[in-house]
Each structure stands twice: as C-alpha cells, then as structure tokens.
Amino acid sequence: MSTIEPLPDKSSEASPGVPEVPADVLAELRSTWTPRPAPDGPGRAARHRLAEAARRLVEAVKLADAEGDADALQSVADDVSDLAARIAALPSLRDREPNLADLQLHERSPLVGAANPLAPPMELEADGPVIRAHAVFNAAYEGPLGRVHGGYVAAAFDEVMGVAQSGSGRLGMTAYLTVRMKRSTPLHERVDYEAEVTRVEGRKAWVTARSYAGGVLVADAEGLFVRPRALVLQDEARAAGEA
C-alpha cells in the first residue's frame, strides 16, 4: 500500500504565480476559521458543551438497533422530543441580531463550528501559506459501511480549501471543486488534510488539497475560488481611500 509524505514546509516559500502575503494579512483573512478562541463567556461555553452532547446523541441514535427493545426506543424518543422542545424554548439567535462572535465560522460552520452539532468538529491550523487540518468522523457520517460518505468527504475539502485560498491575499466563493477518491475515507480514525493556493489570476485562486489516514493517501482535490466583482470594487475603493 503506497504512502505519502506531508507537504513540504512552505512557511517562507510562495508557489510560482502566487503572491507573498504578509503574515498579519493571512491571520486576518483566516480569523473567522482559526485559531478557535476560548469561549467568551459562560453562555457560549455552555452552548459548546450542548453541541458536543448533541454530537454524542446523534451518533448514539445512528447506532441504535432497530431489532432491539422497541419500547425502550419509543421511550427514549419521547424524552429526546421533550428535550428538543425545551431547547427550542430557550432564547434563540433568531430573536436578535447576531454579534461578531456568533458569525465566526469556528463557531457556526457545519465542519469546524464548536457550537454546531453537525461538525465533527474539524481542527484547523495555519502553517505559513499551507492550511493543515484533521478530523475524526463518527458513525453519523457513514456512507459505505465503515466509511465516510462521499458528500462529507467533499464538504471537508471545501472547508479546508476555503481557508487555504487566503494564501491568494483575499477570499472568494467556491466556483468548482473536483475531488478524486483514491481510497475510501475511514470512520473513527484521524484524517489529515493539507491545502494551499497554487495559482492566482486576478479574482481567481486555484487551490489543491489532499487527505490521508495513517500516512496513506485517501483523496485529493482541486478547486477554483473567485472573489465577487462587487467585493473587488470595494477593495479598490478602500485602497484608493488609504492612498
């Protein structure tokens, strides 16, 4: 079985055709994803704890045996329904304007969000122009038996590459994403990711990435991210005002 080496250390090296972006600019562009700060108060800490409990609940429900005790399942379903109603009765973000902390992707993303029970959550870190990440996918993400569903494989790449596009010096939207499954991605094992910008042309940034489990390549991806024209005009107006 073939193995791969991690991407070389490029913390001080830019790929041909990719601008060298100052470290402070990279940090600002990536701040919505990483680093994940400590909760800013007891309420947010409790929400993070609730999200983690919900992740465990989702996995437990996924693995509950339909051939087991039907009465017990019905009883637990009643309890969970009551609990969902209790949570729904609490103050909701729908009732107020979200603040800056609420809007950060490290808080709300379905892949990395500490407060989102859909997130594994994936852990991200910056290594110069390279973004590295890792996650462990539990049974809730299962497609083929014992393997991660291909849609989640693609979504994880989109998240990591979305952060990595910061290496172009700006952020845009996913225009296309191509994922090649080399092997199936395992459940319950650490999956590592690396992504970096490989080319920049105007509003466009091309990003490549790959994932591996235990040093074995399981998938790779390439994508194009495009900064909306309206935001480019805002960038130009801001730069002109600062000149």
Question: How does this model look, in words?
Answer:
With 243 residues, this protein is α+β, with helices and mostly antiparallel strands. 35% of the residues lie in helices and 22% in strands. It has helices at residues 23-30, 42-63, 70-88, 100-103, 105-108, 150-164, 229-242, and strands spanning 123-127, 130-136, 173-181, 190-201, 204-213, 216-226. It is globular and about 70 Å long.
Summed up, what is this model?
The chain has helices spanning 23-30, 42-63, 70-88, 100-103, 105-108, 150-164, 229-242, and strands at 123-127, 130-136, 173-181, 190-201, 204-213, 216-226. With 243 residues, it is α+β, with helices and mostly antiparallel strands. The longest helix has 22 residues, at 42-63.
Keywords:
single chain; 243 residues; alpha+beta; Thiol Ester Dehydrase, Chain A; 6-stranded antiparallel sheet; 6 strands; 35% helix; 22% strand; disordered N terminus; HotDog_dom_sf; cell projection; hydrolase activity
